[in-house]
């Protein structure tokens, strides 16, 4: 008898987690370079269902477990901003960022300059080129970023010079990257970054928007609420059933 | 329920986004205005199951973890320092900058501020001042009997004095450049202040070191593009209402839980 309640409970706990994930996706609807997540559920079979007094074979009971959150690394839409230090990645790949905790990776290309002329992220962490941080001269103008990530600028004498090349990397299995907030991902020590394929392009003057699809999220939101409510109803029925049983049995 | 708070961070972020966009639209006709943009980042994640954890003594590992994010935050509202359009005004002391530099202005308290808005006036002593009456630095005084003010591309100001045939040079307008223009602190009145993150200003004459040229009798309009602002506004408003929907969904779920107990 308890099984119905417990199976329902396992589903409700999983649904609440799913709602948390949907809420995070929707909260990040406008976050540059954000990648949406989805929850992966798994059936958990209880091998020892104790229904000795039922005729026929034992049925196995299936509980539900939320096993993992999967990040969807698909391309987000590109929005043109025309700001010279906005860079979007078209294709698989990440910018490498130098943080106090080691190298981190991001898809958010809304870069800035710091007073030393270094190319930095929104949090002031240097963006890495193939040969360390990318540094500009104080008098540089017309910063240009080519499709392969080469960064060049015009100096005071009007000569165009190369200032570095953005290090765009890919991973054998991006699912193993851990999102750690601040639009950054960290890679496990066992998975080394590789330089991205030439088909991955850097696009200057554009930003990659969040790849969360609002329609899909609202749909899932509806689904979660309805499923949760129907399980609540089922729990109520089970509860009533048991209450009646106790009442009737007491009368005998 | 975590979703309630996550959605609340989303609503707060979008509210700020609408504030930034509305300020951009309000300043669509402000001379030398540079639009701002709200930039977002995801908050930290709670690791419920860590990716790569060993799942058996055979060395099998979890291919994906269970990470639940806590929402969104606004990190900065940088200015997009693009060149604005140039319009003809036919007013002698309207000066537009084509390039990267800023005019220097002396504030009444002695500090120096920087501006792109080149709509200057003359005060009672003939000095070139901003519409608020703050002095242009270096100071340039136009004599009373002067006619025909000319400011050339390199920033030299010259006038014709009544009765003289040769123009007289009055002074040189200088421009300041910053390594990180986005790091300037806006103080209203179209003025900016130097900060630790903008770097120290480098002074140069217009036309040199990438400071840009001066264009007399022209003004730089705001670099706000109405179409993109309105579409950003729509996106922000929709995102706000979707976050509100998450709040009500979480509320509904809590309610149905509460109703289970009779």
- How far apart are the termini of chain B? 22 Å
Helix coverage percent of chain A: 25-40%
Largest sheet composition of chain A: 4 strands, antiparallel
Principal-axes shape call of chain B: elongated
Largest interface: A-B, 72 and 74 residues
Please describe the topology of this protein.
The complex is a heterodimer of chains A (252) and B (262).
Chain A (H helix, E strand, L loop, with lengths): L1 H26 L9 E10 L14 E11 L6 E3 L6 E4 L3 E6 L2 E5 L5 E2 L5 E2 L7 E2 L2 E2 L7 E5 L4 E5 L5 E6 L2 E3 L7 E2 L5 E2 L7 E2 L5 E4 L1 E3 L5 H38 L1
Chain B lengths: L1 H25 L12 E4 L2 E5 L16 E4 L2 E5 L9 E3 L6 E4 L3 E5 L5 E4 L5 E2 L5 E2 L5 E3 L8 E6 L4 E6 L6 E5 L2 E3 L7 E4 L2 E3 L8 E3 L8 E4 L1 E3 L5 H34 L3
Antiparallel strand pairs in B: 1-4, 2-3, 5-20, 6-19, 7-8, 7-11, 7-15, 8-17, 9-10, 12-13, 13-14, 15-18, 16-17
Summarize the structure.
Chain A contains 2 helices and 19 strands.
What do these coordinates show?
The complex is a heterodimer of chains A (252) and B (262). With 252 residues, chain A is an alpha+beta fold. Chain A is 25% helix and 31% strand. Chain A is built from two helices and 19 strands. Chain A has helices at residues 2-27, 214-251; strands spanning 37-46, 61-71, 78-80, 87-90, 94-99, 102-106, 112-113, 119-120, 128-129, 132-133, 141-145, 150-154, 160-165, 168-170, 178-179, 185-186, 194-195, 201-204, 206-208. A four-stranded antiparallel β-sheet of chain A has the order 6-5-14-17, with no helix packed on it. Chain A has a three-stranded antiparallel β-sheet with strand order 11-12-13, with no helix packed on it. A two-stranded antiparallel ribbon of chain A has the order 1-2. In chain A, a hairpin with a 4-residue loop joins strand 11 and strand 12 (150-154). Chain A starts with a helix and ends with a helix. The mean pLDDT of chain A is 88. Chain B is elongated, with a radius of gyration of 27 Å. The mean pLDDT of chain B is 90. Chain B contains two helices and 20 strands. The longest helix of chain B is centred in the last third of the chain and has 34 residues, at 226-259. Chain B has helices at 2-26, 226-259; strands at residues 39-42, 45-49, 66-69, 72-76, 86-88, 95-98, 102-106, 112-115, 121-122, 128-129, 135-137, 146-151, 156-161, 168-172, 175-177, 185-188, 191-193, 202-204, 213-216, 218-220. In chain B, helix 1 (2-26) packs antiparallel against helix 2 (226-259). Chain B is of the alpha+beta class and 262 residues long. The two termini of chain B are 22 Å apart. In chain B, strands 7, 8, 11, 15, 16, 17 and 18 form a seven-stranded antiparallel β-sheet that branches. In chain B, strands 12-13-14 form a three-stranded antiparallel β-sheet, with no helix packed on it. The interface between A and B is large, with 72 and 74 residues.
